[in-house]
Amino acid sequence: MKPPHHPVPSGDREIARNLMSLIRNSGAEVQLVSDLRIYDKHGSEELQAALTAQAQAEASRLTNEMPETDLWVTYHNYYKAPDLIGPAVARARSIPYVQIESTRATKRLSGPWAEFAQAAHDAANVAGAIFYFTQQDRFALERDRCGDQAIAHLPPFLPLEELPALSSLQGPMLTAGMMRAGDKLASYAIIADTLARLSGDWRLEIAGDGPARPAIEALLAPFGPKISFLGQLGRAELTAAYAKASLFLWPGVNEAVGMVYLEAQAHGLPVAAQNRPGVKDVLLPATYPAPEEGAQGLASFTSQLLANSALRTETARHARNFILNNHLAPAAARRFWDTVLPLMGSRA
What we know:
It comes from Leisingera daeponensis. This is Glycosyltransferase. This protein has about 350 residues and is an alpha/beta fold. It folds into two domains: about 10-160 and about 330-345, Rossmann fold (3-Layer(aba) Sandwich); about 175-325, Rossmann fold (3-Layer(aba) Sandwich). The protein has helices spanning about 10-25, 45-65, 85-95, 115-125, 135-145, 185-195, 215-220, 235-240, 260-265, 295-305, 310-325, 330-345, and strands at about 70-75, 95-100, 130, 150-155, 175, 205, 225-230, 250, 270. It has a four-stranded parallel sheet with strand order 1-2-3-4, with helices on both faces. Strand 6, helix 7 (about 215-220) and strand 7 (about 225-230) form a beta-alpha-beta unit. Helix 2 (about 45-65) runs parallel beside helix 3 and helix 6 (about 185-195) packs across helix 10 (about 295-305).
């Protein structure tokens, strides 16, 4: 992944920044010790070999130059982007090593990513603890647990101590998502199909931008002035959009987590989404339409929320309690340190 300070919006980078803030706000000093990007999108043995060599040089540099450190934390170790640095540095410095959102992909141990998949697997084996965000990741981590390694749940969280202001729930629907080809565009296509099945005087605001914007604008052109494109919003502007929206609409095609769901629910927005792995881990428990139900299922779910203000109000109360109890910084900090401190104490 790109470094956390990269300017292009991304859920991965937002999570990384939130994790750094969580640890820092607990009283610890946090160092981002390397900007080296280890990522092979297409499965190239040549690229993997080159990145491995760069990582070895970086590990050697950090072993010699990194300030005194009590813990190494790696976020997002998987077969396309294995941690080729952390295990070597942690071993050389004799410090605990933990991972957050690591995945085990045994089916990738053969094929074009075989070397990187094995490296990711080896790095996971070294970790004293692995934190998982979703139940989808838990099975493989426990199946391949190495020794007495801790496998701990760290629900995705917002870097907030308390809930933001409750939405009025009276404005237009809101969508927030990057505009790029692939899964994001697929979600926008489902939205277009869903909107075509809605009746009544609905409106939708869309926050986001990117290279697929012309294609998305074309998908939604038939709805004319019912759609407002807000572009890429800053934090304050997005907060203002949440604060007036009636509900949050985003199908969630192949979303690993979807931080926007947490943000929307923190403001009390009912969420119209599909029941997808990963997504359902961060949604208020409810009967969401299955992807197999298509746009018709999502449209029916959305229509019920639009037509019933009392239902929206009730859902808002439950959604905010769900976020408060499970997905804010204090709860996440407790979960993190309860697992990590015993590992650090074992060094004494």
